[in-house]
Structure formats: C-alpha cells, structure tokens
Amino acid sequence: MKIGIAFDLKPRVSPGAAVPDDYFEEYDSQETVESIAAALRTLGHQTVLLGGGTPFLDHVRYDPPDLVWNIAEGRGGRCRESHIPAICEFLNIPYTHSDPFTLAATLDKAVAKRLVRQAGVETPDFSVIRRIEEIGDVKLPEPPLFVKPLDEGSSKGIRGDSICRRIKDAEDRVRWLIETYSHPVLVEQFISGREITVGVIGNTGAPENPDRVLGVMEIIPKNKSNPDFIYSLEVKRDFERQVEYVTPPIAPQPHVRLIKEAALAAFRALECRDVTRIDFRLGQNGMPYFIEANPLPGLSPKTGDLPILSRLLEISYVDLIGKILLAAVERLNLSRAGVSTA
Q1: In the chain, what are the domains?
Q2: b/e per residue, 241-251, with b = 16+ CB within 10 A?
Q3: What is the pTM of this model?
Q4: What is the tens place of the pLDDT at every residue in 157-202?
Q5: Cβ pair 304, 217 in contact under 8 A
Q6: Could you say which DSSP state residue 203 is in?
Q7: Neighbours of 137 (CB within 10 A)
Q8: Do the beta carbons of residue 71 and residue 6 sit within 8 Å?
Q9: Could you tell me whether strands 46-51 and 2-6 are parallel, antiparallel, or unpaired per DSSP bridges?
Q10: CA distances (Å), origin 267, targets 9, 276, 330
Q11: Between the CA of residue 241 and those of 141, 147, 237, 238, 245, what are the distances in Å?
C-alpha cells in the first residue's frame, strides 16, 4: 500500500523574532516524520511525504496515495486541524485519525469540555475570554485558576506561572496571552492533584478493533511531591531532568479504573477515531477531571507522550504505528485488500 504522510514542519524561530519561541510548538520535526515513514516501511508499505497546505493539495490531486497518514496541524484558526481530512473527504481519499468535526471540536478546549460533560465526565469549571475588552466582564471560576490558550496544543503558552491564585493575576495573564498569541483564552479552575494521560486506540463500534485503553501514564515531578505541578512548556523541554513517567500510575487502582472509564467515555463523546491521547487531573478526591483530548497525539519517538507510554508498556515504536494503522485499516475496510499492519 502506498501511504502518504501529511504533516507540517516546525520552522526555526530566530532570536529577536516577532513571535514567541513556542509559536510553532505544535508542528512536527523532520525526525518525527521520518520515524513514522520508517516504521510504515518496516510494516511493508511504500511511503511518500506529502507535507501540508498547498503542497499536500497538489500531491493528492494528481497522484493520490492509497491512504493518507495524517499528523498535519494546519495553519489558521481553530479549524486548522480539519483542513487535511476535509480535503481527503472531498477527494475520496482514505485517511487515518479523526474526522474534520472531531479535530475542530477537540482543538477548541471549551467545546470539547461541553461535549464530554454531557457524557457524564467531570471537567473543571471554566470561562472563555476572546478579546481583551472582555476582561473584567466575563465571570471567572473561583481561584486558583489555570490560564491557557483556548485552541492551541503542545503546551504552547503554558508556563510555570500559568496557575493564578487571584482574579487580578488571571486577568493579567489573559491579557498577556491575547496580546502574545492573538487567540482566545481558556480560564479554568485549577485541579490540584496527579497529572495523568491516557492512550486510546481503536474505534467505537468496531467489532474487529474496538476502542480500548492502551495504557494510563502518570507524569511525576522528580525529587519532590507537588500537587500543584503542571506539565508546562519548560518541563516538556527538559523532561529527562524534570519528570518521571510511570505506568501504571501510583494512584490507587479504583481511581485508575475511573480514569480508564472516563477516557473511553470522552473518546466516544468526541467521536474520536483510531488513536487519541486524553489528559486528566486526578483530584484529591480521586475523581478524574478531563482537561483535553489530543486526536493528533505527538508521535516523536523520543519526546511524544504516547511513544513514551508505549515504551513503558514494552511496545516498540513500529508496533505502536502498526496498532494505529490497523485501527484505521479495519475502520476503512482496507484489510480486505490484504494490507499488512504488523
């Protein structure tokens, strides 16, 4: 099978640039793209690098692959992750990962929270501020508060001082984020407790490959117990020194069971497909609080949380890619063509 990889590469931000150094944090490195391609070739497939945007469109219009492996973040507003799958659907090209609706709904963290709340999953109280002029008019939850961009990922705009213990501090943080990133801001009640991420692979209602939890991983700060720990940009960029990844979590087993149930409920409520990584805070009462879902989870073999979780589970990178591919292939009924996934 010829598999085309859709992606957006992270440009280099030079010192003194007009944008912050994490402005393109969501985009992938050449190493990640090449690692995915190498894994797919190991599984017996031909690969072609399609890129994103106009180059992607030019490629697929005139030489479409059998399947698009989509990790493209897109460029633009809150629907940017939907661009590639929307093109694929318009041109009738099969693709991996979630559809345009789910990618747009999950990128807007407030929309995602409303959907999972309707499914009975707890999430922190939150408010959205879209313009600086709204500061002071929008009613915020009770402090402490966590302030971050509404529709960004990869901890873009999230720093060690994103926790605000006073309304005035939260309003100042909102102002800085809007001025810096020109995006709306989510202000949510900060949940003090364990940082948890869950990998889910499969598809709801698929008898051959149903959605199931791959694993549950806890991110723990090294050398200290800190219920106010946040998985910030600074931590992610220095993860080997700052955090320890543990699976299964140190949390009590009844709490872990609740996390798994909440992850599958969120996966289904958001209608995710093939693979998603879902982040929670485990409150002091043992209740998992949904933070966000990542239907295009980072697949860097070194730094991606899902590959890190897989290594802890003794699942190789090639096998992880194979599991995601198998979920997509069976969902699309491509397995009838004898497609190899392992």
Answers
A1: 2-97 (3.40.50.20), 125-189 (3.30.1490.20), 192-337 (3.30.470.20)
A2: ebbeeebebeb
A3: 0.93
A4: 898 889 999 999 999 999 999 999 999 999 999 999 999 999 999 9
A5: no
A6: B
A7: 8
A8: yes
A9: parallel
A10: 27, 7, 18
A11: 34, 25, 10, 6, 11
